[in-house]
Amino acid sequence: MPTPDTESLFVAELTKAQVKMRIYLAKLLANSPSTDDVLQECNKVLWVKRDDWDPETIFLKWAYRVCFFQVKAYFRNQSREKLVFNDELLDILGKEDPDQNNPKDREIAMNQCLGKLDNQDRSLLLERYQGELSVDQLAQREGISPNTLSQKLLRLRHQLLICIQVNLKTI
Amino acid sequence: MKNYEKLVWKLIDREISDIEFADLQAKLLSCKELREYYQECLETDSTLVSRHHSPFLGFQEKKTEKKIVPFFTYGGWAAAVIVLFSVFFFSHPEPSALLVSSEGADWRGIAVSDGDSMPTDMLHLHRGAIEVDFPSKTKVVIEAPAYFQISSANSLILGQGMLTATHEGKPGSFSVQTPVGSFFDLGTQFGVFVDHTIEEATVITEVFEGNIKFEGFNKNDSRFINEGENAIIKGHNRNESLKIIANHPYAQLFPRPNLKAKSPTSAEQKGLSEIPFADARKSESPDIDAIDIMLDGNLRAQINYSMVKGIASALDQKVKILENAKNNYTPSDNITFAEAAMRQIEAMGQSIVESYVKFPEIRYWEACQTAEVIWDEQRNEEGQITHRIPHAQRLKQPREGNRLLKNLETIREWITDVHIIHENKGMGWASKFGCPEDGKAIFDKRNKNLLAITYAIDSIKSNLD
Questions:
Q1: Mapping DSSP to helix (H, G, I), strand (E, B) and coil, where does residue B111 land?
Q2: CA B322 vs CA A47, B316, B329, B356, B360: distances in Å
């Protein structure tokens, strides 16, 4: 039976792990729209199994294992899911260590990199993530085809990613 | 950018074709670098979607009512899950409550449509409000952000959020369960607000009409609350007694019996709850700092806190001079205040960035007011106060306090204004001789200062120990 102290510690660890768990799940689920629902299931399972967690061990490692098996269970029950990795790739992706950087550092690095983009590109990228306008609507407003806009957004995100990687080394 | 890297982004956007997916899958199997790239893309994507605030120019994000899954805060969700599970993990009977109507409802996880029966699962209403009818002749309006569960035909569990319940059925037949205990409606209208940190749950209730009964997990914590009364109830876990503060002027809730009734604006709330409370404190209480009470016995922290207060006061003095100047400024020749006061604003920014003080190390509770002084009073038989003992109580909503954090944000805003003007007027604008190269150097330096000030603000906000 966990004591109130270990329970508080568990809650703190679970809360802290949410962003990383979601990214891990998104990786295995090919960024499926159901990622948040699976995350919810994982949280439930982790809570039910909280007695199994040893506070001396790394919480995330244990959480990732639970997430991995929840993804497998999800794929078993969801035949409608269109993009499903095969078991071999799923096993490899599940075992590989996710990113070790602190999300806060990544955010700082990203802010610096966004500052390096020109205004128009930056606005476009942020509008895409703001979610008010679809790619088609954005393309129409910009007077370009949706395909051209998609290509531009791919290029901008790639550029941002490379810049973040460089910046993270200096933070 | 290589072809497979493009496919990774297409996968993340879910715009990949079956053939492309098969191709990418084969490549991911054999190429570790591509798998690392996939990981990096997801990290970048996640950072972009979870970005709520930016220090940069023109980055103000508009609020959206559209259902977009990525905008999501995970921590609060997990905390709410834990509260719900730790307190009420049990099986439920069939539901029969009905979602009558909704207003801008944005659900996470399970979504419920107007006219549907409410499921018994835990639900997360991210934005908007809903109106639910229970068979017990109870109407409940739940306002986001809320985590709740319809536990039976005549009860619900509120893990986080705000509700107004109007009960016209048999007294005692409807209840609201919260992390600190249950509220039983005795034929009335009442509001419940639930919030919590990892360590502590706070529930505020107010009875608008009639009366209710509150039952804590410990029998000693039970009590009746009558019309016009309110209570703040705080608790850590089932084994400890609750802390109940009755009729606190800061604990006012606002009834919303149906979706046609609007929530009060923040200004209205402020007018009704914060200002009278502030005035009452002023007239009755000597000037005692809640943080000093909390730091009792830690001399080092007390001295540090006094020094921060000194710095905050000095900064506030200078910012107020500029604020006054701004209020009295009349623009002429289309010259805005930021443009006219550019030198002073730049100087202020530099004083932060090149300061003797390490601003990013200042703690959140040192830079704004996170606690207030509450007085425990003892009265004699005639009702006269015989003892008053101050103690500190954390504020649910921090206030400006010594304005250190607020002033840093104001300075950042001014510098941002100058930066926008500079950008619009061309690089030569900030140079004495109109030289674009000099102007660009000033622009870049200011951008760095903006980043540093933003970093300081973000760091202070994260220094929560």
A1: coil
A2: 53, 10, 10, 22, 24
- CB-based contact B153:B116 (threshold 8 Å): no
Place of tokens 């809640």: B290
How would residue A111 be classed by pLDDT, with cut points 50, 70 and 90? confident
Complex ipTM, two decimals? Answer: 0.92
DSSP B13: T
Exposure letters B221-259 (e unless 16+ CB within 10 A, then b): beeebeeebbbbbbbbbeeeebebeeeebbbbbbbbbeb
Give mean pLDDT, residues B41-65: 56
Q: What is the pLDDT of residues B73-87, one digit of tens each?
A: 334 444 455 545 544
Token couple for A70: 């929840």
Residue B268 has pLDDT above 80, yes or no: no
| Among B54-68, B193-207, B267-281, the range of highest mean pLDDT | B193-207
CA distance A166 to chain B (A): 12
Mutation for testing the B interface, residue in A5, A37, A130, A153 having most B CBs under 10 Å: A130
Q: Is the pLDDT of residue A72 over 90?
A: yes
Give every CB contact of residue B194 below 8 A, 6+ residues apart in sequence: B158, B159, B160, B161, B162, B178, B179, B201, B202, B203
**Tokens at B308, concatenated:** 């921060």
- The residue among A110 and B52 whose pLDDT is bigger is A110
Of the candidates B191, B123, B195, B206, the one whose C-alpha atom is nearest the C-alpha of residue B160 is B195
Q: What percent of chain A has pLDDT over 70?
A: 94
* Residue B101 in tokens: 């109507």
CB under 8 Å to B333, separation ≥6 — which residues? none
Q: Which of chain B's residues have a Cβ under 8 Å away from the Cβ of A155?
A: 1
| Cβ atoms within 10 Å of B438's Cβ, excluding its own | 15
Pairing label, strands B174-178, B155-167:
parallel
Contact B316, B407 (CB under 8 A): yes
**First vs last Cα of chain A: how many Å apart?**
42
Domains plus CATH for chain A? 4-95 (1.10.1740), 103-170 (1.10.10)
**Is the CB of residue A132 less than 8 Å from the CB of residue B62?**
yes
Q: What would the pLDDT profile of A16-36 be if each residue is shown by its tens digit?
A: 788 899 999 999 999 998 998
Between B261 and A44, the more confident residue is A44
Chain B residue with Cα closest to A12: B198
Residues of A in contact with B8 (CB under 8 A): none
Compute the average pLDDT of residues B52-68: 32
DSSP assignment of B229-245: -EEEEEES-TTS--EEE
Which amino acid belongs to residue B96? S
